[in-house]
Amino acid sequence: MCRLFGLTAAPHRVRATFWLLDAPDSLVRQSRREPDGTGLGTYRADGSPFVEKEPVAAYADAEFGRAARERESGTFLAHVRYASTGSLNVRNTHPFEQRGRLFAHNGVVHGLDAIAAELGDYRELVGGDTDSERIFALITQRVDRHGGDITAGIVDAVRWIADSVPVYALNLLVTTASELWALRYPDTHELFVLERAAGGPHGDRHLDHAGLPGTVRTHSADLARYPAVVVASERMDENPRWRALASGELLHVDGRLRVRSELVLDAPPRHLLAHSDLSARAAASQTAH
C-alpha cells in the first residue's frame, strides 16, 4: 500500500536526507512491491513549495528512488505510491501542490464523478486522474469557503466525502511551510504520530528513521538539537512514544510545534467499501507490502 511520511520541526529549518524506495537492486523483489511513484515535498526559505517526484515503476531504473536527497525545510512530506487510480505518470504522483500547500493520500475513494460535480470551477486544479488529487481540490475549495482556515476546510471536505461517496480509506497529510495536518479515516489503515523531543528519548541522538524495506528512510543530524513531530504509516523506530491515531482523528501541528488533536469523524463512512468491493488493481494497492 502507499506509504505516507510527514515531519515538521517548525519554526526551525532543518536538513533531512531521504531515501525513497530503499530497496535492493533485485528486479524480482522490486516487482513484488510494485512501487508506482515516489515523491518528496519541501519548502524553500521564501516559503514556496519544492516538489521532486517520479513515476518510478518496478521495471524502471530505481536510481531516483534510492538516491539520498538532502533538503532543508521546516516541513517535509514524502510518499511512496502503489497506484489504485490513474496511470503511472508524474501528474498522478504524490505529493500534489495547490495554493502553496502540499498533499498526499493513502487509500481509495470512489464516486469521482460526484466529487467532480461538487468541485465546480475547482476542477481546474486537477491535472491528473487520481482520487487523491480530487480530494485535495475539494479541501482547497472548502478552505477558501472558510476564509483560508485550513483546519475547517479539511474537516468540511472529509465530512462531505464520508457522507456522500464510497470510501475505503482516507488517510491524508497536508503541509504548509510551517504547519502539518494528518487525518486517519476510517480504521482501514494505520497512521502513527511521534512527538519527538530534541535528541530523541535519550536526548543525544539524531533522527534516523526507517520504514519497511521499499518505503521511506530519513536521517537528520539537526534533530539532535531540535524537537520535531513525525507522522508515518508505520512506526519507524523503537521509540515508545509512537501513538496510533484513532479513526476520524485530525492532528494539527502549528508553526511552533504545538499539537492539537480532534475527533472530527465519529462514525464510519455512510458508504464504507470492503476490500472485496475494490477492483483487482485497487485491492492490490491496498494490501500491505
**CATH H-level superfamily title:** Aminohydrolase, N-terminal nucleophile (Ntn) domain
Helix count equals: 6
- The percent range for helix content is 10-25%
Order of SSEs, N→C? EEHEEHEEEEHHHEEEEEEEEEH
Average of the residue pLDDT scores: 84
* Major sheet attributes: 7 strands, antiparallel
Number of strands: 17
**Which stretches of 5+ consecutive residues score pLDDT under 50?**
23-34
Q: Strand fraction band?
A: 25-35%
Helix-strand category: alpha+beta
Q: Give the distance, in angstroms, between the N- and C-terminal Cα atoms.
A: 6 Å
- In CATH, the topology is named Glutamine Phosphoribosylpyrophosphate, subunit 1, domain 1
The CATH architecture name reads 4-Layer Sandwich
CATH class: Alpha Beta
Strand order of the largest sheet: 4-3-6-1-14-11-15
Overall body shape: globular
Number of domains: 1
Radius of gyration from the alpha-carbon trace, in angstroms: 18 Å
